[in-house]
Amino acid sequence: MHRPATEPHRSIYYRYEVHEPWLSTRHGARPRAKVVIVGSGPAGMVAALELARHGVPSVVLESELQVSLGSRAIVFTRRSMEILQQVGVADRMTEAGLPWRHGNSFYRGQRVFRMEAPHDPDDRFFPLLNVQQPYLEEYLVDACKAQPLIDFRWGNKLVAIAQHADHAVLTVDTPAGEYTLESSWVVAADGGRSPLRTMLDLKLEGASYEGFFVIADIRVDLPLPTERLAFFDPDWNPGNTVLMHREPHGIWRVDFQLPAGETPEQALQPESLKARIDASLAMVGHAGARWELDWASVYSARTLTLPHYRSGRVMFTGDAAHLLPIFGVRGANTAFQDSQSLGWHLAYVVKGLAGERLLANFSAERVGAAREIIDEAGKSTRFMTPPTRGFQLLRDAVLSLSLAHEFVRPLYHWRTSRPHEYTHSMLNATGDDDALFTAGPARGAPPRNVRLGADDFLLDHLGGGFDLLYFTTGDAIPAPLRAVVDEVRAGGVAVRTSAVGTASAEGADQCLVDADGHFRGRYGMGSRGGAYLLRPDQHVCGRWLTLDPTRLRAAFAVALPR
Ligand SMILES: Cc1cc2nc3c(=O)[nH]c(=O)nc-3n(C[C@H](O)[C@H](O)[C@H](O)COP(=O)(O)OP(=O)(O)OC[C@H]3O[C@@H](n4cnc5c(N)ncnc54)[C@H](O)[C@@H]3O)c2cc1C
Fold first, then answer.
1. Are 467 and 533 within 8 A, CB to CB?
2. CB 476: neighbour CB atoms within 10 A?
3. 252-301: per-residue pLDDT in tens?
4. Strand order across the beta sheet in which 98-100 lies
């Protein structure tokens, strides 16, 4: 019998709520579910909310009775906020979080690099926002609760799976005993240790790096701005790295690398933690500051992914699909992109709007994204924790040269998580005018936000289905194009048409005024007409300087393979 912890996790700033378990004895007959999601971390809940947005119900199984322990992911990128806006929790995140855009790297006490993340007046969200993961999860839980298509089951632990040609049978353990549940599809969002991955005997591919880091969250009053602080080779931790981040509620994260040979158990001893936290505070000019520990944990860097994110009826997302180093804030930020993508791909297959080739596309796109991230993250990981003597020499050379030479300083700048461009997606329109554009988001890329008013942005108006952005100075979307849109809609596919550049246009679902031509410029349109077709995850699947019905019909056919 499954016995999840019923005592709330301890925290000095976050009040954990212990939810009631869902008990099978209290509920009646169980028809086959369309989708069961295993795990209610960020990946599982975003997948459930996205599926619901496309009209697909899901059952979410969560083995625990409360949100996750410790701050875990604390830095959320702009693209993550844009995805969270789609599932309805961006406002609460913005309210709770600390926005920032500068990072400082120090070598032996001297600042050698200052990073500035670009921030454009066209962006609704800051490049980076710090909020502790339990808050994010709480907001997602509330959004799931408010969504009638989501059947959320706390305290339900998946213990076995049997796969069949068109469904899977799941055995679920609860505080009232086991029950079985049939589902057409299963989403594995069960985290880094993914029991589903083990049950299906699937192996992650890639590398694990030696060297441990400790994360210690402390409450301390430090009058410092919200900026990332990275210290290389500081006096108190020679040859190693220390990172510091401000979190909401007066909490600071101190993240330090352990000397070679020290075990995680030794590092988490109270006296060892105290000495290093005191040394870190002294390093930022606050020796003797009073502090209180909230949570401490140890991690090491891994760059691992499954080679495919589909196994029979099971689709993988988030940490269950890949394990990425946290340098560059890649864990949860990548999970959002996976689950936003999985949501529409799976929904369209469940609803019969596309064939299962769409799921092969999800896997190819997201495995491609993970491999690109692994490649980039590998570079930062080798800089942060050099795996061989050769890498150590190289890093030490960069560090010492940086004291006197400006040109090496940008090498300190590890790239943060960014959205993948699906340049080679099989859903991209063939024969569009992408190659003729000199600006604007390319075919396969995520969209670019545009400010439309004081508190009004393009992305507030997009998503949930396909979006056709039609740039015009005329007073109508041409009837032959509308006829294609109507044909596609008649097949059950949601399409919204937006006329850009005019206050009223016949046949448009909405008009987005562009008085000064700024929108056109940002989308590479000049003064000409033209169009963009965006997929339900807002990525561009085709763009045209001249769009006719044949080209539009062909683009939809490619984007929704049978
Ligand atoms: C100690 C630690 C520190 C981290 N720090 C950072 C950081 O600083 N920055 C960053 O970007 N990322 C960080 N991460 C990673 C980040 O937390 C994850 O990338 C993110 O949570 C991934 O979300 P997920 O939904 O895929 O997995 P998880 O959040 O792990 O969610 C998986 C869920 O599945 C549930 N589950 C597991 N097995 C079963 C089962 N059999 N049946 C039902 N439910 C099950 C679990 O209870 C859990 O709720 C950290 C992770 C850890 C562990």
1. yes
2. 16
3. 999 999 998 899 999 999 999 999 999 999 999 999 999 999 999 999 88
4. 75-77, 128-130, 98-100
Residue 334 to residue 318: CA distance in whole angstroms:
7
Q: Which protein residues touch ligand 1 with a CB less than 6 Å away?
A: 38-44, 61-64, 68, 70, 72-74, 133, 157-158, 189-192, 195, 215, 297, 299, 318-320, 326, 329-333, 335
Rounded to the nearest angstrom, the distance between the alpha carbon of 160 and the centre of ligand 1 is 20
Closest residue (by CA) to atom 38 of ligand 1?
190
Burial class (CB in 10 A: 0-12, 13-18, 19+), 335: buried
DSSP labels, 461-497: G--SSEEEEEE-SSSB--HHHHHHHHHHHHTT--EEE
Instruction: Give the residue among 474, 476, 471, 496 at the shortest CA–CA distance from 485.
Output: 496
What separation in angstroms does the CA of 368 have from each of 89, 142, 365, 372, 378? 28, 32, 5, 6, 15
> Which residue's C-alpha comes closest to atom 50 of ligand 1?
72
Distance CA 357, CA 90 (A): 32
Q: Which atom of ligand 1 is least distant from the CA of 64?
A: 47
Q: Are 196 and 319 in contact (CB under 8 A)?
A: no
Q: Evaluate if residue 218 carries a pLDDT over 90.
A: yes
Q: How far is the CA of 189 from the centre of ligand 1 (A)?
A: 9
Handedness of CA 146, 127, 335, 452 (dihedral sign): positive
**Type and span of the H or E element at 396:** helix 389-402
Q: Ligand 1 centre and the CA of 467: distance in Å?
A: 32
